[in-house]
Amino acid sequence: MSIIGRHAEQDILFECVNSKRPEFLVVYGRRRVGKTFLIKEYFNDHFSFYATGVPNAKTRDQLRVFGQELIRYSCEEKKAPLDWLEAFERLRRLLEDGKVFKHPGVGKMVVFLDELPWMDTAKSDFRMALDYFWNSWGSSRKDLLLIVCGSATSWIMDNILNDTGGLYNRITRQLHLAPFTLRECEMFLNNENGAVSEKQVMDFYMVFGGIPYYLNMFDRRLSVAQNIDMLVFDENGPLHSEYSILFRTLFKHAEKYEAIINFMAKRKSGVTRGELLKNADIVQGNTLTKILRELTECHFIRKYRNFTKNSQECIYQIIDPFVLFCLNFVSDSRIPDWSSFIGSPGYYAWRGNAFEVLCLNHLPEIRAALGISGVSTMECAWRSKKSEPGVQIDLLIDRRDDIINVCEMKYSDGEYVIDRDYETKLKEKCRAFRDETGTKKTVQLVMISAEGLKRNAHSDIVMRLVTGGDLFR
Prior knowledge:
Rossmann fold; 13 strands
């Protein structure tokens, strides 16, 4: 197998294959994150049955494709199924026949239905037939592992994970596939000939995030800037129109999700639910709750709390690098190409914000670098209501061992240098936080710097240092 990382996910697949009970596994995650690749690679493309939905196809075409796959797996009936009940009945008979491939050693039949949302066309009986297949037969077969997968997150959550009908409480396992970490990105890019430096990996991640599909397009012969121009800014580039279709492939009524993303993008540090509700263009009530949950599940946004607020007043912030990059530089065509933009004031401002997002996506690595992986923590932010100008801390690590880490995140081309003015600013930030929150815990300043920290007369204010290299561990 050539799977990069995904150790926890592979453990789930191993447990499913080796369990002594029927297993119904739901695999979900955002577009291009590698769901199908993971399943196919893990099982080496050896399934008892595999079929995938067809995008934008009518019910009869979906059934015809499903029927052709049944024939490929030795089903003797050659005509296309009349409906989904008949299609799943044929699948049941095929599996009962005993001639299908079974996983060596354990004898598990693995059935993989990919892009399930595409199969559920308008006015079809697909969901009813799937319910009946599992409840009347599959749920009593200890030798069956049914895997369903799909990028349309809202469909998966509404009709499978949160179903109140026939599949209620029937799912035995869930596998939520997240984007790659920096370490996994490095492993992916260096999987073939040609080494890519940690700095190149970080620079690429700050634009594209940890999406394997995007990483696979990286051309090692070109610089990161040339790759960005080739992939995104070139009108014929393979990712030039990616953002325009991203939400439509994941969510029904995608315009509602985009409205929320566009509103959030105007506030770097995030917005509260109350601020969203005040906007007339934003959906209300339970619909807003559902959209925020799904955007969080797809890792487009994160949900966190203000240190001085209760859990009901959470903040939502965009943390998907590619979404932020497209909203800033591609959607409104502000710049003709990335190479010419490098070195400008706007570039350095973007780079600082993008590095902060990178850090927020690597909180486990930051905790590990601080030696507190085993300590219970709460990651949050804080905005002052008293100081002028307003003090804001984008990352606080509130620790159970009576320490609070105030984290400063900086990206620079060399070791970061703290001067007298910045030292004074950092002291004021920590003092304002202690005074205004009234915390009794020890406040320690942590510097997260991509290239490390230059030691000088002003750097002693930093209690702990986390480098870019630490984020790869």
